[in-house]
Specification:
Helices cover about 40% and strands about 15% of the residues. It is of the alpha/beta class and about 300 residues long. Strands 9-8-7-6-5-4-11-10 form an 8-stranded parallel sheet. A 3-stranded mixed sheet has the order 1-3-2, with no helix packed on it.
Amino acid sequence: MRASPTRPDFAVNPSPIASVPVPRLRCGRFELTLDRPRIMGVLNVTDDSFSDGGRWLDPTAAIAHARRMIEEGADLIDIGAESTRPGAPPVPAEVEAGRVLPVLRALADCGVPLSVDTRKPVVMRTVLATGLADMINDVAGFASPEAIDAVRGGQAACCVMHMQGDPLTMQQSPVYREVVGEVRHWLAARATALQHAGVDRARIVVDPGIGFGKTVAHNLALIARLPELLADGLPVLVGVSRKSMIGAITGREPGQRLPGSLAAMLAAVARGARIVRVHDVAATRDALAVWAAIDAASQE
C-alpha cells in the first residue's frame, strides 16, 4: 500500500471543540493520513455541471485539468460523470462509465488517490474492476444493497453522503424535524450497514451533503454543528465549493463564489472536517496555509 506523495505541508491544530484522534483512511492503493485537512479536487466530466458547464467533458481537457489540480496541491481527485445539481436528470450507466474510464486510466500514475463520484452500482463495479478507483463517492450513501455489494470485497474507500430525495427533486421544499440529529443518525446507520457487510471501518468517510436536499438554514446548521457529526469517530468530508448556499448569502453567481466558498470551507475545517471537496485547489491550499499559520501562532 503506497503512502501519499510528499508535498509541501502545513500543520493544522483543530480547535478544542473539534479535537478528535487523527484517523487514517484506507483508500484503495493508498493510505491517506488525515493529520491535516486534505484537499479533494473536483473533476466534472459532464456536459451540464452547475459550476463549470461541461468545460472538462473532453477527456484530454479533463486529464490536463486533473494534473494541474495535483500540481496545485490536490490530495485526491474526484471524477464525476453525472451531474448531481438540483434538477439534474440521470445519465445512463454506459454513458457515465464511458466518460469516467478514459480519465481514470490516463491518471493511473498521477500519484494521488482517484475517487469516482457515482451512485450506480454497475458503474461502481466497472470502475473498481480497473483497480484504479481508490474511493467510491456515493451521493446516495450506499443506500441500496447492490451498492454495498459492489464495494464490500475491495479496498476502496467509501464516502457515505447524505441526500434527502434525489437530484431531480431534492430541493423541492426539504423538511427535517432536527437536521443535524437526523443527518448524523442516517450517516451512522449507513456506515454501520457497510461494516456489517464486511467493509473495514478504516475505509469509511462521511459527508453531510451540503446542498443535497437542504435549505440554506439546514446547511448552515450542519457546518456550525459539525463537531456533532465527529462524535461517531468517522472522518468527515465537506463540500461547499461554489454551492447555492454561497450564492444565497452573497448574491454571487457560481463563478464568483470563491471568497464565500473559502470562508465556508475554513469554518468546516475549524470544526473538524478532514477532507474538503473543492473546485479551486490553489486558492484553497493558500487559505488553509494562512489559517494554519495563524492557528499555530496562537498555540505558542
